[in-house]
Structure formats: C-alpha cells, structure tokens
C-alpha cells in the first residue's frame, strides 16, 4: 500500500524535528565534558594509588566536585526518560501511572540534592583552598557516604523486591 500524501509541507515546518531528544542528553554531554577536562589535568586518568597529592591542583579538584555535583541530576534525567517511556507505553493502566509518578518524585528527591551536597561538603571555608578542603574528613567521608547511598538506591531501584519470594 503506498504512503498517503497530504500535500506539500508548509515552509515554516520544513526544519522542525520530528521528535525532541530525551531528557538528559545535554546533561550527559556536560558531564562527559567535565570528566574529560578533569582527566586532562596532571594526575588525571591514573589510579588514585598511583598518584601523589602533589599531582593535583585546585582546578582539578574543582572539576572533580563539579562532576560529582552534576552526576545526580544527569542520572535523574536518564531515569526520567525511562519513567516517561513507561508512562507513554503503559499510561492507560491507572495503577502503573501512579507508580511512575511516585518513582519520578522519589528519584528526583534523591538525585537532585547531589548538586548541593557536593558543594556543602567540599567547598572551601575560611581561607582554605579547594585542595586543602578536599583533604578534610568531612569532604571525603561525606561524598563517599552519599556515593554509597546513590549506589544502594540505584541497585534497589532495579532489583524487584517481592516479600513472597
């Protein structure tokens, strides 16, 4: 059966894309850019046990904090794209629609604060440099604890949990 013709396309619509990119594309590009920039710093790209503190600079640590800060929102956008896909595919199921919206809310409430957490723990205070602040236990332990929590929530959000099994 031949494709149905609807007449010529108006000039105003010739350059309109058929679909917009999924949420998170700009965030992923930004995140990858920051990570690549931080890897190009002295000491970047090596294992931590193969480097010494003298290899790092304030600029390298700032890029590390920024990449940590934008990781949460970027992951949220990726998960948001999947939630919206579920909503699009199964939106007629009322119970699933509720679960998707709850999932979006809970995921957003967990991942969006990463922006602030990285800077709260690791922003220099009272004349410190970024590198000096990175050596404090508050910065190291705070980011490590939040990273573990992100991992637990990330894995917990994927593994089905059924009390009857």
Strand coverage percent? under 5%
Query: How does the helix and strand content classify structurally?
Result: mainly alpha
Q: Kindly state the mean pLDDT as a whole number?
A: 75
Please give the count of helices.
Answer: 6
CA radius of gyration = 22 Å
Total strands: the figure is: 0
Helix content: 55-70%
End-to-end CA span:
51 Å
Low-confidence stretches: 159-165
Helix/strand order: HHHHHH
Largest sheet: none
The geometry reads as: extended
Oligomer: single chain
Describe the model.
The protein is 61% helix and 0% strand. Helix 2 (58-90) packs antiparallel against helix 3, helix 2 runs antiparallel to helix 4 (114-122) and helix 4 (114-122) packs antiparallel against helix 6 (137-156). The chain has helices at residues 25-39, 58-90, 94-111, 114-122, 130-134, 137-156. The chain is extended. With 165 residues, it is mainly alpha-helical. The relative contact order is 0.10. The longest helix has 33 residues, at 58-90.
Structural topology:
Layout: H1 25-39, H2 58-90, H3 94-111, H4 114-122, H5 130-134, H6 137-156
Helix pairs in contact: 1-2, 2-3, 2-4, 4-6
Highlighted features:
mainly alpha; disordered C terminus; 0% strand; 165 residues
Task: Describe, in short, the structure shown.
The chain has six helices and no strands.
């Amino acid at each position: 059966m031949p494709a149905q013709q609807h007449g010529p396309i108006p000039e105003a619509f010739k350059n309109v894309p058929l679909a917009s990119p999924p949420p998170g594309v700009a965030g992923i590009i930004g995140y990858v850019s920051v990570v690549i920039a931080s890897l190009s710093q002295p000491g970047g790209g090596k294992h931590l046990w193969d480097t010494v503190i003298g290899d790092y600079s304030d600029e390298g640590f700032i890029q590390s904090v920024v990449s940590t800060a934008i990781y949460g929102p970027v992951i949220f956008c990726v998960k948001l794209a999947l939630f919206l896909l579920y909503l699009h595919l199964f939106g007629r199921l009322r119970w699933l629609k509720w679960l998707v919206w709850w999932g979006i809310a809970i995921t957003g409430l967990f991942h969006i604060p990463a922006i602030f957490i990285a800077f709260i723990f690791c922003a220099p205070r009272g004349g410190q440099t970024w590198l000096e602040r990175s050596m404090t236990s508050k910065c190291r332990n705070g980011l490590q604890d939040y990273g573990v929590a992100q991992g637990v929530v990330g894995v917990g959000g994927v593994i089905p949990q059924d009390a009857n099994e």
